[in-house]
Amino acid sequence: MWYMVKSFYLLLSAYQIRCGYPTRILGNVLCKRYNILNYVLFKGYLLVPFLFELRTIMDWVWTNTTMTLMDWLKMEDIFNNIFQHKCARRMESEYPQPRGERKNPTVKYLMGGGALVVIIGILWFPLVLFALGNTVGKPNLPYDVTLSLRIGPYQPVYTMSAQNNSIYR
Predict the structure, then answer these.
(1) With left for phi above 0 and alpha for psi between -120 and 50, is residue 137 left, alpha or beta?
(2) Does the CA dihedral 95-101-107-112 come out positive or negative?
(3) Do residues 160 and 167 lie in contact, with contact meaning Cβ atoms separated by under 8 Å?
(4) pLDDT of residue 81
(5) Could you report the per-residue pLDDT of 6-27, keeping only the tens digit for each?
């Protein structure tokens, strides 16, 4: 049964290839050129949670195709990887680095240090914001104070306690 379904799927896919793909598909606007700007914008697009999946599913829904959703997602993922590799090869050809030569420490510290600061900021900013957001600038007044003075393991020599208003006298 599985063989028959897969054969029918391949037959429909071959028919789609023979008849041609729709010409009205614009594709991803960021993938028209292979340069560093498109690469950075494309990586930013991929970093937005579920935006890639949302666009891919909408493309699949409104495009006449014989592919399943999972196959369409695989095809888009392959296209994304190929685009990123093409951009990387283009950057390597435009900004060549001789083999076996060390990277400049200034570049390493600026790029690596900047990346570390950004990642640490992304991790720590929400924690600091929610931990200190409502408490900064507001006094944290005590409600109850208790003082006990004892010598060694014996009973306390002096005990004092105060509540709310009598704390400030």
Answers:
(1) left
(2) positive
(3) no
(4) 96
(5) 998 888 888 888 887 666 566 7
Q: What is the C-alpha separation between 169 and 29, in angstroms, rounded?
A: 71
State residue 130's pLDDT score.
Answer: 85
Question: Which residues are CB-contacts of 156 (< 8 A; sequence separation ≥ 6)?
Answer: 148, 149, 150
Tokens coding 159:
């005990």
The H or E element spanning position 132 is helix 105-132
Six-digit token string for 36: 């560093």
Q: Check residue 62 and report its DSSP letter.
A: T
Residue 159, strand partner residues: 148
- Using alpha carbons, list the distances in angstroms from residue 39 to 29, 80, 124, 139: 12, 10, 27, 49
Q: Cα Rg for the chain, rounded, in angstroms?
A: 32
Give the residue among 17, 48, 45 at the shortest CA–CA distance from 31: 45
Closest CA to 83 of 30, 47, 44, 25: 30
Burial bucket for residue 131 (CB in 10 Å: 0-12, 13-18, 19+)? exposed
Single pTM value for the model: 0.57
